[in-house]
Amino acid sequence: MSIPTSTTVFVRCPAQGFRSHSKEELTDYFPPFYWHYIKIAQKKRPMLGSPLREQPNEHPSRSSVHWYLTSTESSNVQNESTAAGLEGDPRKNDFKWATRSVLSYEQQTELIQYLLDRLSIHEKIDHPFLTPSIASSKSKYLDPRCYLLSNDNRSTQLSNNTIESDPLEERTDVGLYTDDPIYHPSKSTPLGDEPDSDSSYHLSEYTSSSNDPAYDLEDPELSMTEEEGTPSRVRREKKKERHTVKDKLSLHEKNEMTTTEEKRENVYRDWNEEYQTWYGQFVKMNASDDTQMSTLQKRGQTLSKLNAVSQQFVNTATIYAKIIISEYELPLHRKTIKPIDVGGVAGGVKYRVQNIMYKFAFDILLVEYPPLWMYGGPKPDHRAASKAAKNEMRGLEAHSSTYIEGLFYPMMALVDYLGFRVVAMPVLPIDKTTLRYGSDDGGETVHDEDEELREKMRTVAERLYIRGHMTGHTPGDSKMIYGPGDIEGHRGHDGRMYIVADPATRLHPRPRSVFYELLRPEFLAKHKVSLCSDAFTRWNTGENKNEMNDEVRAATKKLLTMSMQELHQYANFLPHIWSRMISSKFDREAIDTTNFVNAFTHILGINFRYNGLLEDLSEDQMLKKIVRSGCIARCAKSELREILRLKMRQVQAPSEEDFKSVVVRFMNELIGGTANSKTYWSRDLCRQLVDWFWFDLSKEQIDTFDITTYADIRLVINFFTKYSGIELEYQTMDRFVQLGDLKNFRFVPADIRSLSAVVKQRSDIYFSMGMLSLLRNERKREKAIEQGKDLVLLKDSLLRQAVLAVQNLRKASVTNMASPLYLLSWATAQIEMAKLSDWDVIDDFAFVRISIYFNITIDMMTEKYKKRRDELVVEAAEVYAQFCEKKGRRDKRDLLLEFVKRTREQGIKEKEDFIPFYAN
C-alpha cells in the first residue's frame, strides 16, 4: 500500500547500530541520548534535508506523533502489531508509531516491515561500543542513516531492496559518522529518486581516548596556569602525540558533554556571579602592598578568567544592543526585545535580555508642565544624557580603583550605534529590599542603616577626596552620605561618584549642567581637598551647604587657572612633536601622539570641554590646529548622532546600507564639499565650539569660518571616523593618511565599508589583557631558555605581544586615570617594548612620554606606589641612555646616567627631577 504523497518521512536508526534484538540489551549498549526515532509529519510540499534528531527531554506534540519506547505506551503497539503478524519480532518497539491521522494502519504496518528489513543488514556488522577503549579497536561499521521522503506527486511504493556489500569490505579506519555506503545501482531509493550528493553531509570523528595527554585544548590562558615546577621531561612527553586544533576541539567537546548539558539546562548565564568570583580575587591581589609586576603576572588564572568573562559580556551586550537600537522606532508589537518597567527616575526605558539590562542614554522628562527635563531643563538635551551615562561609568571606575575588599561593582558597557547610546549592565541580585545606602526614589527615602557599608563608603570617600554631606527631603529624615545622594549601596554600589563643577563658571550658564559637567577624580587627587558630590543641587541639605559650594567654586577656579597653565607648559615642551604630526602622514606614531595629548590632559584633571582655553593659551600654531581638529571632530560626532536618529525614524527597520548615504552627505558637508557647508560651519559648528569647548570666536571669525584653514582636514576625518565607528575603505583611508591636496576630494557611498558599534568598557578588561600579554612574553622567554633556543628568533613575536600590552594598558590608564597601578603597568609595558624595538624604530618621544606621565602624577602617587615608580623611572632612564649611546649622543647619555645614580640614592622628590628626560 502506498504512503500519501504529501507525507515526508525521516528515519534515523540508533547512531551506533543494532547489536541485539532485545530492547534491554540495546539500552545497556547505548545511552538514551544516542537514540534517534522515526518522525512522520504532514508537509505542504516536499522537503530534502538531514534526519531529525529528537532530544531525550523534548517531547513533540501528542497530536502529531506517539512515543512507543515506554512501557506505558507499548500495549497499543503490541495489539496492532499482532494483527500484522509482527508479534514475533522484538525490534518493533524500537520505533515511533505514526498517528492514524497521518498513515493508515496498513501503511504503518508496511512501513515498519520495511524498516525491519533494512535493519537486518546492520545486524550482520560488528559495530563498535561507545567506550573509547573499545571504539578505537573497532573500525568497520555502517552509518545507519536512512532517508525516506516523498518528493513528487506520484504514489510511492514501499518495497524491499537488495544492498551491495562490496563497499563494506573496503571500509577501514572510519569514524562514527560517514556517508552512507548503502546505495542502489539504479540511483533510486525505495521511495523515489536518490537525492543529490550535495544535499547530504559528511562528518568524520576523531576516536582517540579521552585519556590522551593532548586531550586538553592548547589555550594560551590555560597554559599559563601550569605550575612552574613541572619537570621539562613531563612537558616533552605530553608532546609525543600531535593533534590538530580540530582534533583537540572534538575531544574537548566530548569531555565537556556533561557540563554542556548542564549549561543548557540553565536558561540564562549569570554574568554577575562569574565576574564577581574573579573580581574579588583581583581586588585582593591589588589591595596588597606588593606592587611588583611579577606578583601580578603570577596571577595568570585570575587575570585570564576576569578578562574572558568581561570580554564575553561586552561582546554579548554589543550584539543585543545593536538589535535594541535597530528596533527603536518599531511599534511595540513588532519588537523582538520589548522594554520593561523597573523604576528609577533618571533611568529611562529599560530592556532585559540574556540576563543583561539595557537602557537608552536619553534625557528624561521629569515634569510635563511646565516641562522640566533631567539634563536639558526646558528642552531635552540627549548629548548631556549621553555624557551622564559616561560619567556613571567613570564613577564606577573611580570607586573601584580604591580596591576596598568587600565592595563589588558591576560590569558595564556603553554601546554607541547609529546615533544611539545604550548602557548595558548584568542583572544583579538586588531589589528595593536590599538597598542599604543612598536613595533610589529621588531623595524621599535615604538609607544609611548598614554600619559596615557606611564605614567602607567613608574609606572610599577619603581616598577619592569626597566630603560627606547631609541629604534628604526633610531635615528629620536626612542622613550623612559620602558621595552623591542617589548612589545605591546594596552591599555593592551603583551610581556616579564624581564631583560636580560650578555651573556659574560657564560662559552660558546652564543650571542643569551640575548633573553632567563634573570634575575629574584626577583633579581631586591633585587638589587634595575633599569636596561635596552634590554641591549646587538640592541633594545637599546640610546647614553648611554654602560652605561646600564655595569649596567647589574655588576648586573650579584653580582648575581653570593653575592646571591650565601647567598643561600649557607641558605642551610647550614638545613643539617638534606637534610639527611632525601636522607635516607627516597620519600613521601609528601620530595616533600615539594624539592619545598622549588626550591622556596627559586628563591626568592633569582637565576636562576636554576646556580645550578652547588651551587653544587660546597656546602659542604653537601646530598645537592649535591639533586641538581645533579634535574639538571639531567631537562636534561633528554629536551632529551625526542627531542626523542618524532622524534617519532611523524614516527607515524604522534599518540596515547599515540605509545610513551610508546620509553619512556620506554629512562628511562632504563637514569638509566643505557642498553648497551648505558654510551654513553648517557658521550656524552649527561654531556655536558648538563656543558652547561645548569654550572657544572664543568673534562674529567676524564665525562669518568667515573655513574648516580647511582653521583645522587640519586629515586629523578631523581620522578623529571623526574613530569616534563615530565609521570604517572607510583602505584606498579612501589612505588619502587621509598621506599628505596631499584634499581640496577637491568628495566622499561617495562606496567609500564607507561599514558603520560599526563603538563600545566603551570597564578598565579591568584592558588591564587584564595587557598584563596577560606581558605574562605570555615572560613564559616564552623561560621556555626558550629552557630549550636552549636563541631569543633573537623570538624577538618579532615578543615585540608584537609587547605592543599589544602597551595598547591595552594605555586604554586602561585612559579609562581610569586615577589608578596608579594602571599607570605603573603601562610604563612597564612601554619599557618592555623599547627594549625589544630596533633603535631605528623608536625615538625620544617614547621615553619622554613615560617621564611626563610620572611627572604630572607625582602628586597623585601614594606611598604604596612611589617605590615602584622610582624603580620604573630608573629602568626607563637606563634604556634611554642606551638609546642615546647608539645614536652617538654621549652628553645626553651621561646626563641620564647621573639621573639614575641620584634617583637610586634619593628617590624622586619633585617635578624638576625629571628635567634630564627633556634636555636636548
UniProtKB/TrEMBL annotation:
Residues 244-261 have a biased composition (Basic and acidic residues). It comes from the Eukaryota. Residues 233-243 have a biased composition (Basic residues). One of its GO terms (molecular function) is mRNA binding. It comes from Planoprotostelium fungivorum. Residues 248-513 form the Clu domain. Residues 215-229 have a biased composition (Acidic residues). Residues 176-261 are annotated as: Disordered. PROSITE patterns: CLU. Pfam families: CLU. This is Clu domain-containing protein. Residues 198-210 have a biased composition (Low complexity). InterPro entries: CLU_dom (IPR025697), CLU_prot (IPR027523). One of its GO terms (cellular component) is cytoplasm. One of its GO terms (biological process) is intracellular distribution of mitochondria.
